[in-house]
Design brief:
Blueprint (H helix, E strand, L loop, with lengths): L6 H17 L3 H5 L4 H10 L1 H4 L3 H6 L2 H4 L4 H16 L3 H14 L5 H16 L3 H12 L7 H14 L3 H17 L5 H37 L4 H6 L8 H16 L36 E6 L3 E6 L8 E5 L3 E4 L19 E2 L7 E2 L2 H9 L9 H4 L4 H10 L3 H10 L5 H6 L6 H5 L10 H19 L9 H25 L1 E6 L19 E8 L7 E2 L5 E6 L2 E6 L10 E2 L11 H12 L6 H15 L4
Parallel strand pairs: 9-12
Antiparallel strand pairs: 1-2, 3-11, 4-8, 5-6, 7-8, 10-11
Helix pairs in contact: 1-22, 3-22, 3-23, 7-8, 7-9, 8-9, 9-10, 10-11, 11-12, 12-13, 13-15, 18-23, 22-23
Length: 614
């Protein structure tokens, strides 16, 4: 999965282009430009003199970048086998997922890796998932080895307390062995012993079930009259009608017991996330609690305040990301679409850079934004936060995109009071950029990056106009929007971290992970509503990313009228030095922190100086 470009490659290209612009006397002209559209037009007009074939070099690397690689896939599978033998199941699972991502779609290599993954899942007691992995492996698995998959499936059903289905799979396994020629005699003898052991366990389980059924029948017969039946009810609240109905149902169940169907996947309980919010969802801000309001002032801009007293540890915001982006090193650990940890991987048929946690996420991503990333994702992944800006644009449908671009205006106090605030593209368009505080060098770099992104978009079918002049106009406009989004992401994107306590058993593990690390940053995302929270080095909320949502809880009791404050950088508890915290914040967010923690520290230092303390 090695990319032909390193993270520093584009930075070097942009730096060299900046030096060339200075040499040719174009830098001064760029420094006087006031709008993102003018900056993009400048890059477009001077493309030949400043960039030569730079963009073409990036875009033409597609064929050598990707895609599937059978040799690498086999090597990862072999590494996984070594880890499995040594009982390092988490690393084995990661290697098998990597092998699946790199394997040619619907190939024997992919089937073998799914089959090996099913063995890991079985050892980790994920029996339903093991059966699903076997199903994905089955069609292209070597015929002479299929009996192994069927035997493992029989073992899974046995573990799931389904002896009928387990016995049925075991019979198929025996038939496959009889029909398969050339198998090693010693291995077959060993395998047959395992099957005999499983048959014995199935027989014991069936016998135990029959004994339990017999005891239930005898217990039902022992009731001599209605009073006896009522007296032996299992709960005090059980009514006579319920007892009679239960007795009838037990008779019907015992009269006919057909073979059990294949075990279903684990149940998925759909929860109405808005009902989890304190006092329910806000009418005007759906992902916020009714206890919050969006306010506006000239000095603070838009911000969030409490409209009533809120107790500690209350869920007040619950927002899905509008767009999210995994860090490249976690591509085989978390779902590229929803950021859920991957147990069974689903792949992109073309590239090896992404995996999905389910068919649902796979289909949603492939039909939406991934089709505009796939061929050039090796370049996009080296562009950092600019990639998130790109996905924010391509994840938006065309009608919404163009309508929003033409209608966006600077929000004012009246608009805040009359309109609802939703987690949509319209809200993202109105997030701040801090363009005035950014250096000319940075704006030049961001402009080059935005134009590169527009070249990538132009090479896809995202632009719907076929006329060359109109396509160029549309490209320049989209590049200016991308430039705006890059600036917005720098100031508004949220880092997503996860702790090891949130991981599912041992199956979630990244190949580059530090095992001693308790909390790790694995993704970035844009949350339009949560982005409205202003900063404090001593925040009154805490954020938890869980099941695809950023959940915001109160860290302490909050009084009516108090502002809801997040921490953009290091908290005071982690970086006690006020000067260091303010330097970090000013470098990225362009403001000098005046929060309670900083003011108290500055005041305390002043008091010490007044009192002659060192």
């Amino acid at each position: 999965m090695e990319s032909p470009f390193s993270d520093m490659d584009w930075l070097d290209t942009a730096s060299n282009t900046l030096d060339l612009a200075i040499q040719k006397g174009l830098y001064t002209e760029f420094s006087h430009l006031k709008s993102d559209l003018d900056r993009i037009r400048f890059i477009h007009n001077h493309r030949s003199s400043l960039l030569s074939n730079t963009f073409e070099r990036y875009l033409s690397s597609t064929s050598s970048s990707l895609t599937k690689n059978a040799t690498t896939a086999i090597n990862f599978r072999k590494k996984g086998n070594d880890y499995f033998v040594n009982k390092n199941l988490s690393r084995a699972a990661w290697c098998y997922r990597a092998s699946i991502a790199l394997s040619i779609i619907n190939s024997q290599d992919m089937a073998l890796s799914y089959g090996n993954l099913s063995a890991v899942l079985f050892e980790l007691n994920h029996y339903h998932e093991s059966i699903r992995a076997i199903q994905l492996a089955n069609d292209f698995y070597p015929n002479e080895l299929k009996f192994k998959l069927v035997f493992r499936r029989a073992a899974c059903y046995h573990k799931l307390n389904d002896p009928e289905r387990s016995a049925y799979e075991l019979k198929i396994c025996r038939d496959l062995i009889k029909k398969t020629a050339g198998l090693d005699r010693k291995k077959i003898d060993s395998f047959c012993k395992e099957m005999d052991q499983l048959s014995g366990q199935i027989a014991l389980l069936n016998k135990r079930k029959e004994e339990e059924q017999h005891q239930e029948q005898e217990h039902t017969k022992s009731y001599k009259n209605l009073d006896d039946l009522i007296q032996h009810s299992q709960t005090p609240t059980e009514t006579l009608a319920t007892c009679l109905l239960k007795s009838t149902e037990e008779k019907l169940d015992n009269e006919f017991c057909p073979p059990s169907p294949p075990s279903p996947p684990r149940s998925v309980f759909l929860i109405n996330e808005s009902n989890l919010l304190l006092h329910g969802p806000n009418e005007h801000v759906p992902c916020a609690s009714t206890t919050l309001n969006v306010a506006y002032s000239k000095d603070k801009g838009r911000h969030i305040i409490a409209n009533q007293d809120i107790p500690s540890d209350s869920l007040i915001l619950n927002e899905r990301p509008y767009a999210c982006l995994l860090l490249p090193k976690f591509a085989y650990t978390y779902c590229d679409h929803c950021l859920t940890s991957i147990v069974i991987p689903y792949v992109c048929p073309q590239c090896s850079h992404v995996l999905f946690c389910s068919e649902h996420c796979q289909q949603r991503a492939l039909a939406s934004y991934h089709q505009y990333e796939c061929k050039h994702i090796h370049v996009l992944k080296t562009l950092g936060i600019a990639f998130l800006a790109y996905r924010t644009l391509t994840i938006t449908d065309h009608e919404t995109l163009w309508t929003t671009i033409t209608q966006t205006t600077i929000p004012n106090e009246n608009e805040i009071k009359t309109n609802s605030y939703k987690s949509d593209y319209f809200s993202i368009q109105k997030l701040i950029t801090h363009t005035e505080q950014m250096s000319i060098d940075d704006l030049f770099h961001y402009s080059l990056t935005a134009y590169l992104l527009s070249e990538i978009i132009k090479s896809t079918n995202f632009l719907q106009c076929n006329q060359i002049k109109k396509r160029d106009t549309e490209q320049i406009l989209l590049a200016s929007i991308l430039l705006k989004h890059i600036q917005q992401m720098i100031c508004n994107a949220q880092t997503i971290s996860i702790t090891k306590t949130n991981q599912i058993d041992e199956i979630i593990f990244d190949n580059e992970d530090d095992q001693d690390e308790i909390t790790k940053r694995f993704a970035s995302a844009i949350f339009p509503t949560c982005a409205l929270m202003n900063h404090s080095c001593v925040p009154n909320i805490r954020c938890v990313f869980d099941q695809g949502y950023l959940r915001v809880y109160t860290a302490r009791s909050i009084r009516q009228g108090e502002e809801i404050l997040n921490c953009y950088g290091p908290q005071k508890t982690l970086m006690p030095s006020t000067e260091q915290r303010q330097n970090v914040l000013f470098e990225q967010y362009f403001f000098k922190c005046q929060c309670e923690g900083c003011i108290d520290m500055i005041k305390s230092q002043g008091d010490k100086m007044t009192n002659g303390e060192n």
